[in-house]
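Most newcomers find our protein records easier to grasp once they have seen one. Sequence and backbone structure share a record, each on its own labelled line. To make this concrete, we reproduce a full record directly below:
***
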Amino acid sequence: MSAASKSRLGRGLGSLIAKAAPPAAPANDQPFATKSAPATPAPAPTGAPGYLEIAVSAVEPSPYQARRVFLPEQLRELVESIRSEGLLQPIVVRKTGDKYQLIAGERRWRAYQELKLKQIPARVVQASDSSSAALGLIENLQREGLNPIEEAHGYASLIRDFDLTQEAAAYRVGRSRASVANSLRLLSLDAETQGYLGKGLLSVGHAKVLLGVTDAAQRSLLVRRVIEEGLSVRATEKLVQDAGKGAGPKSARAKSTPPRDSGAVVEIEKKLTSHLGARVAVMHTPKKGRIVIEYHGNDDLQRVLEKLGVEL
């Protein structure tokens, strides 16, 4: 994310918090630290309005959560970090009846559930539905934890659920209108291509080029070729240009190609992801295919290899 984008996000978040939140904690307050002993969670700092220790069981997920995928390996890393170092940043919630609804920090909350801790440090703010949705989206954008499709769905939710224009939604999250518009264009891609984009097998640059292909069947073939051959964005541009020159025969051939059994492939992906504890993508065609396993660093690669029964 560029410095300008981060600056805009910071201004958007600051504006929303200034309107919605109680006074911030004093500058000399230390971060929350809840060590691994479940029976003795760290107390909330004194003199910090809006900060409480609340029951983990009293917290509910937000219906406006933009993040769709919570990777098991990333959650494990967070669990170990909290077990070792404590929670350095409280979750952000708002009171809804006798419960607390999450605004930011669902992974932290899930990690506390994994650790079977009873209480979690939280910052309680007053926020409307629209402010809650915008704050949650901004928090995820600042952490750069959303994949491009999740980000696009976050913008779409703001616009759809709260009757905002693209310009108004962009203002709420501190982004430019053009950035939001370009992100929303990704949702016009078919579900299979969106899946590849969400899994990181295609970049946003690739997607923008492929959006120029109007025939869905032909685009699906091009998408698979881009992934199978590991083509760059520039090479994808040339591929799309060449396909356009021979649009007639290629389009006819594409339409005669049977679609993949997406339901069975998705089920295989889920089982492999669960078994390996790593995100897995299966690219299947009747004649050939490819399985892509994502890992994070040498230690995670070693763990995946052990799961596969590979010894080095």
About this structure: The chain has three domains: 3-181, 190-256, 262-307. The mean pLDDT is 76. Residues 22 and 125 are 6 Å apart (CA to CA).
